[in-house]
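re the bet — no i am not wrong, look at it urself. input seq straight from the record:
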Amino acid sequence: VVNLADDLALAMRARKVRIVAPVPGKAAIGVEIPNKNPQMVYLKEILSSAAFQDAETKLAIAIGKTISGEPFVTDLGKMPHLLIAGATGSGKSVCINAITTSLLYRLPPEEIRFIMIDPKMLELSVYDGIPHLERSVITNSKNAEHVLSEIVIEMEERYRKLAKAGVRNIEDYNAKQKRDKILPYLVIIVDELADLMMSSSSNRTEALVTRLAQMARAVGIHLILATQRPSVDVITGLIKANFSARIAFQVASKIDSRTILDVNGAEKLLGAGDMLFIRPGHPEPTRIHGAYVSSQETQRIVYFTKAQRYEVEPIRILSDESIEQMPEEEKEKDEDLFRQAVELVIRHKQGSVSLLQRRLAVGYQRAARLIDQLEEEGIVGPYDGSKAREVLVDETYLEREEWTKRKTHNKTKR
């Protein structure tokens, strides 16, 4: 029967026909014929549905609608990691935006943070500056590898905290802590896995991703990887074995479909958000029409989130050892930013994260770290609620001998 799909498509004058034989749990064969005038599934509709609003999990994400028209909402915590693959223009980036928006609607920055890696420099840059972002969107593949190794260190540190508290997962740990001591969930989003895999001189990137995928669930760290190259050198057997939740959008061939899902079917999809989704406990693919969120809506959500002016501590300040491992040009850039931040707050006679974000064009977390450095140096006062920090020095500070030497040293290095 499955081999008659093309004949049925011809007889029905349909673009593509997908046959499910048998339908799981039923003595029946399913024939999926696409609607000639498909409706758009908007993310707003899924977010306002009872399935999303009444979900008991904190990490509920809106995916779209099933072929029967029911909202499809799932739990990122149970996946616990997600692999997304499909051809260019099939809907991967919109799916990532829908997932990110779902989590932004669900949790404040105190409870969830993102690290975004976008070698293409186009898809995720819109989120730069939101308080949920642990650091600016990473666009350099070499820096991305360094950040992944940092996340492994953070994972190990979280395991030590859980062991000390005598608990087995992040939910039990947070239930014992005060509000300001909880561990936030950490979601790492990689928009093009192929670029990271190809730029790695060894198998280091694959090893780091695999280590996180194997161990990070219990401590609240989740990976979402996307690629437009569903080949075995990108989606390796090791990565696939640790990502039991996978989404396949339209692909060119059965081979690509099997690379992602281990079954045929993705080559019969229609594009524009049409997907097959497999997840733990449901090995048979579920066909879903992905929720659509426009770039204008995403920008409005980002603008609203930035306007909330959250003040949150970064998850982990870089240790001295970690800073020593940073590329030399990145350390110089940080020193140069600090110098600019000092001059900026002294001349404006106030210090705030939003001022540094706006004038230095940096992300929220980097601006927050700069403010912490300024406080350590005695340039600004301590945190005082929503007020800007008091500047404790005047312009004569810039004329001091040690500051002039520091400034000259930086220029000489460059």
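see?? The chain has three domains: 1-37, 38-304, 327-413. told u. also Residues 317-326 have pLDDT under 50 and may be disordered. so pay up
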